[in-house]
Amino acid sequence: MKKLLSVLLSGILFGAGLASSGMTDTSKVIGFLDVFGEWDPDLLFVMGAAVLTTYIGFKFVLTAREEPLFGEVFSVPTRSDVDVKLVSGASLFGVGWGLYGYCPGPAFASIIYLSPMTVAFLLSMFVGMAIGEYLENRLANVATPG
Amino acid sequence: METTIWPIFGGALIGASAVILMLSIGKIAGISGIAWGALSRGVAPTDRFWRWWFLLGVVGGAYLLHFLTAKPIPLVIHAPSEALLAGLLVGIGVKLGNGCTSGHGVCGVSRFSGRSIVATIVFMGAAILTVGIR
Fold this sequence. Notes:
The complex is a heterodimer of chains A (146) and B (134). Chain A is mainly α and 146 residues long. Helices cover 68% and strands 0% of the residues of chain A. Chain A has 6 helices and no strands. The longest helix of chain A is centred in the last third of the chain and has 28 residues, at 116-143. Chain A is globular. Helices cover 75% and strands 0% of the residues of chain B. Chain B is globular. In chain B, helix 5 (101-110) crosses helix 6 (114-133). At the A-B interface, helix 1, helix 2, helix 3, helix 4 and helix 5 of A face helix 1, helix 2, helix 3, helix 4 and helix 5 of B.
């Protein structure tokens, strides 16, 4: 129970952070991405503050403890290779983000605004993830035939 | 001041969220991965339940923020076709790219992960170009 409550708390802070930062306001996000137009740099501070807090917090947690409070291991990614899949995926994601102004987190947080558009975005996003999964499997089969 | 205090406050909350998730269950707070795992059959059932709690928290946290601060609800400025197309691209992209703004942009960059730094530069660049071209 403590485990799920701390996960819930983490989610609440995440949603509150997104809503307060302006990340759930698509016109604000697009203004931030409009570097070559009427650039609104405010959201740089979101990234800055989030990265700084996470850097300090991760450093503290990962050096002070051997294992998480309610789990066995810290699941920190160890891959370091940059491949075509990573770059092409990030490119597609960026185009979608620029078109609408939602990345996945803000899209979830925006459910509370009760717009059918958000539901459409999220459903479409899950379809996209399933397509991505299918493509990943196809690519894996091509890479290792048989 | 008014315009930068909210982003800094929000960013710090997002960071605190990532730290709590790492401290409590040892997971990276990457929304796209958490959301996919909540529905995917490829994820063990024991690794699924917490994801729904997290997502529930995200929605509840946004509600609480607006309720407590009376911050106005953002207006939707888009057409349904844009929502569908953008959602699809975001979905395919985060799956192939193994992450989004939270997993790569916040958690990965904070750990100086090369993959995450590259991904963040690429998706920021692609998003900036997309807005610039339109």
